[in-house]
Amino acid sequence: MTTISKLFLAALLLALSAMTVKAQDDKIITNTKMMGIGSTNILDTYLSPEKYQGTELRYISQTFREKKGNRLYREIIHQGSVSYADNRSGDGGEMAGMYNFQYGWHWLIFSNEKFTVGAGGNIDANLGFIYNTRNSNNPAQARAYLNITPAIEAAYRFNIKNSPHTLRYELSVPLLGVMFSPNYGQSYYEIFSKGNYDHNVVPTWIGNAPSLRQMLTFDFTLWKTTFRIGYMGDYQQARVNNLKNHIYTHALVIGVVRKFSLIKMRP
Protein backbone atom coordinates (compact mmCIF):
# COMPACT_ATOMS: atom_id res chain seq x y z
CA MET A 1 0.00 0.00 0.00
CA THR A 2 1.42 3.36 -0.99
CA THR A 3 1.89 6.24 1.39
CA ILE A 4 -0.94 8.19 -0.26
CA SER A 5 -3.28 5.20 0.12
CA LYS A 6 -2.35 4.89 3.79
CA LEU A 7 -2.99 8.58 4.38
CA PHE A 8 -6.35 8.38 2.56
CA LEU A 9 -7.37 5.33 4.63
CA ALA A 10 -6.34 7.05 7.87
CA ALA A 11 -8.34 10.16 6.94
CA LEU A 12 -11.38 8.02 6.10
CA LEU A 13 -11.19 6.18 9.44
CA LEU A 14 -10.81 9.49 11.27
CA ALA A 15 -13.89 10.91 9.52
CA LEU A 16 -15.96 7.84 10.34
CA SER A 17 -14.80 8.03 13.93
CA ALA A 18 -15.82 11.69 14.14
CA MET A 19 -19.32 10.80 12.93
CA THR A 20 -19.92 8.56 15.93
CA VAL A 21 -23.35 9.64 17.15
CA LYS A 22 -23.40 11.28 20.53
CA ALA A 23 -26.78 12.93 19.96
CA GLN A 24 -29.40 12.10 17.42
CA ASP A 25 -32.55 13.92 16.36
CA ASP A 26 -34.85 11.41 14.66
CA LYS A 27 -37.65 13.52 13.15
CA ILE A 28 -40.74 11.85 11.74
CA ILE A 29 -42.68 13.91 9.19
CA THR A 30 -46.13 12.94 7.95
CA ASN A 31 -47.47 15.04 5.09
CA THR A 32 -50.86 14.64 3.44
CA LYS A 33 -51.92 16.49 0.31
CA MET A 34 -55.63 16.37 -0.48
CA MET A 35 -58.11 17.75 -2.97
CA GLY A 36 -61.71 18.26 -1.93
CA ILE A 37 -64.94 18.88 -3.79
CA GLY A 38 -68.35 19.39 -2.28
CA SER A 39 -71.33 21.60 -1.60
CA THR A 40 -71.19 25.03 0.01
CA ASN A 41 -73.75 27.36 1.56
CA ILE A 42 -72.84 31.07 1.73
CA LEU A 43 -74.52 33.90 3.61
CA ASP A 44 -73.21 37.43 4.13
CA THR A 45 -75.87 39.95 5.06
CA TYR A 46 -73.52 42.85 4.23
CA LEU A 47 -73.90 41.80 0.57
CA SER A 48 -77.33 40.16 0.53
CA PRO A 49 -79.94 38.66 2.89
CA GLU A 50 -80.12 35.66 0.53
CA LYS A 51 -78.35 32.35 1.05
CA TYR A 52 -76.33 31.06 -1.88
CA GLN A 53 -75.68 27.39 -2.58
CA GLY A 54 -73.11 25.91 -4.92
CA THR A 55 -69.85 24.00 -5.29
CA GLU A 56 -66.47 24.40 -3.61
CA LEU A 57 -63.03 23.14 -4.62
CA ARG A 58 -60.36 22.93 -1.92
CA TYR A 59 -56.68 22.05 -1.63
CA ILE A 60 -55.32 20.91 1.76
CA SER A 61 -51.74 20.29 2.83
CA GLN A 62 -51.38 18.95 6.37
CA THR A 63 -48.05 18.17 8.03
CA PHE A 64 -47.25 16.63 11.39
CA ARG A 65 -43.66 16.96 12.63
CA GLU A 66 -42.61 14.87 15.62
CA LYS A 67 -39.44 13.65 17.29
CA LYS A 68 -39.07 10.00 18.14
CA GLY A 69 -39.66 9.48 21.86
CA ASN A 70 -41.12 12.98 22.34
CA ARG A 71 -44.84 13.42 23.02
CA LEU A 72 -44.83 17.01 21.82
CA TYR A 73 -45.32 17.49 18.05
CA ARG A 74 -46.23 20.24 15.59
CA GLU A 75 -49.06 20.60 13.08
CA ILE A 76 -48.87 22.81 9.98
CA ILE A 77 -51.86 23.27 7.65
CA HIS A 78 -52.27 25.17 4.38
CA GLN A 79 -55.73 25.32 2.78
CA GLY A 80 -57.00 27.15 -0.26
CA SER A 81 -60.57 27.12 -1.52
CA VAL A 82 -62.68 28.65 -4.29
CA SER A 83 -66.43 28.37 -4.70
CA TYR A 84 -69.33 29.59 -6.78
CA ALA A 85 -72.93 29.62 -5.57
CA ASP A 86 -76.36 30.72 -6.86
CA ASN A 87 -79.35 32.13 -5.01
CA ARG A 88 -82.75 30.40 -4.96
CA SER A 89 -84.10 32.24 -7.99
CA GLY A 90 -80.95 31.58 -10.04
CA ASP A 91 -80.65 35.19 -11.18
CA GLY A 92 -77.49 36.03 -9.25
CA GLY A 93 -74.40 34.41 -7.83
CA GLU A 94 -71.58 34.78 -5.36
CA MET A 95 -67.95 33.81 -5.73
CA ALA A 96 -65.77 33.17 -2.70
CA GLY A 97 -62.12 32.41 -2.07
CA MET A 98 -60.22 31.68 1.13
CA TYR A 99 -56.70 30.87 2.29
CA ASN A 100 -56.23 29.28 5.70
CA PHE A 101 -52.92 28.78 7.55
CA GLN A 102 -52.57 26.96 10.84
CA TYR A 103 -49.55 26.34 13.03
CA GLY A 104 -49.73 24.65 16.40
CA TRP A 105 -48.26 22.43 19.07
CA HIS A 106 -49.96 19.21 20.11
CA TRP A 107 -49.42 16.66 22.87
CA LEU A 108 -49.66 12.89 22.39
CA ILE A 109 -52.13 11.90 25.10
CA PHE A 110 -52.24 8.15 24.44
CA SER A 111 -50.50 5.82 22.04
CA ASN A 112 -50.14 2.09 21.45
CA GLU A 113 -49.78 -0.14 18.40
CA LYS A 114 -53.37 0.43 17.27
CA PHE A 115 -54.72 3.63 18.81
CA THR A 116 -53.40 7.18 19.25
CA VAL A 117 -54.99 10.35 20.63
CA GLY A 118 -53.45 13.83 20.50
CA ALA A 119 -54.65 17.31 21.36
CA GLY A 120 -53.35 20.86 21.29
CA GLY A 121 -53.92 24.33 19.94
CA ASN A 122 -53.30 26.13 16.65
CA ILE A 123 -52.88 29.72 15.56
CA ASP A 124 -55.55 29.86 12.83
CA ALA A 125 -55.23 32.66 10.23
CA ASN A 126 -57.77 33.22 7.44
CA LEU A 127 -57.84 35.64 4.52
CA GLY A 128 -60.39 35.71 1.68
CA PHE A 129 -63.28 37.42 -0.07
CA ILE A 130 -66.89 37.09 -1.21
CA TYR A 131 -68.00 38.77 -4.45
CA ASN A 132 -71.66 39.26 -5.34
CA THR A 133 -72.29 39.40 -9.10
CA ARG A 134 -75.57 41.39 -8.73
CA ASN A 135 -74.42 44.24 -6.50
CA SER A 136 -73.28 47.49 -8.03
CA ASN A 137 -72.87 49.16 -4.63
CA ASN A 138 -70.67 47.24 -2.16
CA PRO A 139 -70.24 44.22 -4.45
CA ALA A 140 -67.48 42.55 -2.40
CA GLN A 141 -66.73 41.67 1.18
CA ALA A 142 -63.27 41.04 2.59
CA ARG A 143 -62.86 38.19 5.05
CA ALA A 144 -59.97 38.31 7.51
CA TYR A 145 -59.85 36.71 10.94
CA LEU A 146 -57.37 35.19 13.36
CA ASN A 147 -58.22 32.57 15.97
CA ILE A 148 -56.76 30.47 18.74
CA THR A 149 -58.14 27.05 17.88
CA PRO A 150 -58.01 24.00 20.15
CA ALA A 151 -57.80 20.74 18.17
CA ILE A 152 -57.93 17.02 18.78
CA GLU A 153 -57.12 14.02 16.57
CA ALA A 154 -57.58 10.29 17.04
CA ALA A 155 -56.37 7.43 14.83
CA TYR A 156 -57.09 3.71 14.81
CA ARG A 157 -54.73 1.41 12.88
CA PHE A 158 -55.62 -2.09 11.72
CA ASN A 159 -54.74 -4.62 9.04
CA ILE A 160 -56.89 -6.21 6.35
CA LYS A 161 -55.15 -9.19 4.70
CA ASN A 162 -51.77 -7.96 5.98
CA SER A 163 -52.37 -4.53 4.44
CA PRO A 164 -52.22 -1.53 6.86
CA HIS A 165 -55.23 0.77 7.18
CA THR A 166 -55.95 3.80 9.37
CA LEU A 167 -59.25 5.35 10.41
CA ARG A 168 -58.75 8.94 11.56
CA TYR A 169 -60.92 11.70 13.03
CA GLU A 170 -59.91 15.34 13.53
CA LEU A 171 -61.83 18.19 15.16
CA SER A 172 -60.91 21.84 15.72
CA VAL A 173 -63.06 24.57 17.32
CA PRO A 174 -62.02 28.28 17.31
CA LEU A 175 -62.10 29.60 20.87
CA LEU A 176 -60.94 33.25 20.79
CA GLY A 177 -59.92 35.62 18.04
CA VAL A 178 -60.32 38.87 16.15
CA MET A 179 -62.17 39.57 12.90
CA PHE A 180 -62.32 42.39 10.40
CA SER A 181 -65.85 43.53 9.58
CA PRO A 182 -67.51 46.71 8.31
CA ASN A 183 -70.28 47.93 10.53
CA TYR A 184 -73.92 47.77 9.50
CA GLY A 185 -74.47 50.32 6.71
CA GLN A 186 -70.79 51.29 6.54
CA SER A 187 -69.11 51.32 3.12
CA TYR A 188 -65.53 50.36 2.32
CA TYR A 189 -65.08 53.88 0.97
CA GLU A 190 -65.73 55.23 4.47
CA ILE A 191 -63.25 52.77 6.00
CA PHE A 192 -60.31 53.06 3.62
CA SER A 193 -60.72 56.42 1.87
CA LYS A 194 -62.09 58.54 4.70
CA GLY A 195 -60.48 56.53 7.47
CA ASN A 196 -63.69 56.36 9.48
CA TYR A 197 -63.11 53.54 11.97
CA ASP A 198 -66.31 52.07 13.39
CA HIS A 199 -65.47 48.94 15.40
CA ASN A 200 -64.02 47.28 12.30
CA VAL A 201 -61.71 44.97 14.27
CA VAL A 202 -64.02 42.89 16.41
CA PRO A 203 -63.14 40.41 19.17
CA THR A 204 -64.67 37.01 18.53
CA TRP A 205 -65.27 34.02 20.75
CA ILE A 206 -67.27 30.82 20.70
CA GLY A 207 -70.40 32.81 21.59
CA ASN A 208 -70.52 35.21 18.60
CA ALA A 209 -68.55 33.04 16.14
CA PRO A 210 -69.41 29.39 16.84
CA SER A 211 -67.44 27.48 14.21
CA LEU A 212 -65.73 24.13 13.72
CA ARG A 213 -63.80 22.02 11.24
CA GLN A 214 -63.89 18.24 11.25
CA MET A 215 -62.55 15.48 9.05
CA LEU A 216 -63.16 11.72 9.05
CA THR A 217 -60.74 9.85 6.79
CA PHE A 218 -59.62 6.36 5.84
CA ASP A 219 -56.04 5.54 4.81
CA PHE A 220 -55.22 2.50 2.70
CA THR A 221 -52.17 1.26 0.81
CA LEU A 222 -52.26 0.51 -2.90
CA TRP A 223 -49.30 0.06 -5.27
CA LYS A 224 -46.94 0.81 -2.35
CA THR A 225 -48.60 4.22 -1.90
CA THR A 226 -50.79 5.34 1.00
CA PHE A 227 -53.99 7.03 -0.14
CA ARG A 228 -56.52 8.94 1.96
CA ILE A 229 -60.25 9.34 1.32
CA GLY A 230 -62.88 10.83 3.56
CA TYR A 231 -65.33 13.54 4.55
CA MET A 232 -64.57 17.12 5.54
CA GLY A 233 -67.02 19.48 7.20
CA ASP A 234 -66.08 23.13 7.61
CA TYR A 235 -68.63 25.39 9.31
CA GLN A 236 -67.44 28.99 9.70
CA GLN A 237 -69.90 31.58 10.98
CA ALA A 238 -70.08 34.83 12.93
CA ARG A 239 -72.51 37.53 14.02
CA VAL A 240 -70.70 40.84 14.56
CA ASN A 241 -71.53 44.54 13.99
CA ASN A 242 -75.20 43.60 13.39
CA LEU A 243 -74.10 41.54 10.38
CA LYS A 244 -74.33 37.78 9.96
CA ASN A 245 -72.14 35.59 7.79
CA HIS A 246 -71.46 31.92 7.29
CA ILE A 247 -69.84 29.51 4.89
CA TYR A 248 -70.80 25.86 5.43
CA THR A 249 -68.94 23.24 3.41
CA HIS A 250 -69.42 19.48 3.07
CA ALA A 251 -66.78 17.87 0.87
CA LEU A 252 -65.29 14.60 -0.29
CA VAL A 253 -61.49 14.65 0.10
CA ILE A 254 -58.96 12.43 -1.67
CA GLY A 255 -55.22 12.57 -1.23
CA VAL A 256 -51.83 10.94 -0.74
CA VAL A 257 -50.01 10.38 2.57
CA ARG A 258 -46.20 10.48 2.75
CA LYS A 259 -44.30 9.56 5.91
CA PHE A 260 -40.54 9.76 6.24
CA SER A 261 -37.78 10.27 8.80
CA LEU A 262 -34.99 12.82 8.99
CA ILE A 263 -31.94 11.82 11.03
CA LYS A 264 -29.52 14.55 12.07
CA MET A 265 -26.20 13.20 13.33
CA ARG A 266 -24.01 15.40 15.49
CA PRO A 267 -20.45 14.55 16.57
Keywords:
267 residues, 8% helix, single chain, mainly beta
Walkthrough of the structure:
The protein has helices spanning 3-18, 188-193, and strands at residues 23-44, 48-67, 72-86, 93-111, 115-132, 140-160, 163-172, 176-180, 201-205, 212-222, 225-240, 243-266. The chain is mostly beta strands and 267 residues long. The chain has a 10-stranded antiparallel beta barrel with strand order 1-2-3-4-5-6-7-10-11-12. β2 (48-67) and β3 (72-86) form a beta hairpin. It is elongated.
Largest sheet: 10 strands, antiparallel, barrel
Ends distance: 30 Å
Strand content: over 45%
Shape descriptor: elongated
Helix content: under 10%
Annotation field: number of helices: 2
| Spatial strand arrangement across the major sheet | 1-2-3-4-5-6-7-10-11-12
Structural class: mainly beta
What is the helix/strand order? HEEEEEEEEHEEEE
- Rg over alpha carbons: 25 Å
The total count of strands amounts to 12
Kindly report the average pLDDT value.
89
Précis, in short:
By secondary structure, the protein is mainly beta. Helices cover 8% and strands 70% of the residues.
Q: How do the strands and helices of this protein lay out in sequence?
A:
Layout: H1 3-18, E1 23-44, E2 48-67, E3 72-86, E4 93-111, E5 115-132, E6 140-160, E7 163-172, E8 176-180, H2 188-193, E9 201-205, E10 212-222, E11 225-240, E12 243-266
Antiparallel strand pairs: 1-2, 1-12, 2-3, 3-4, 4-5, 5-6, 6-7, 6-8, 7-10, 8-9, 10-11, 11-12
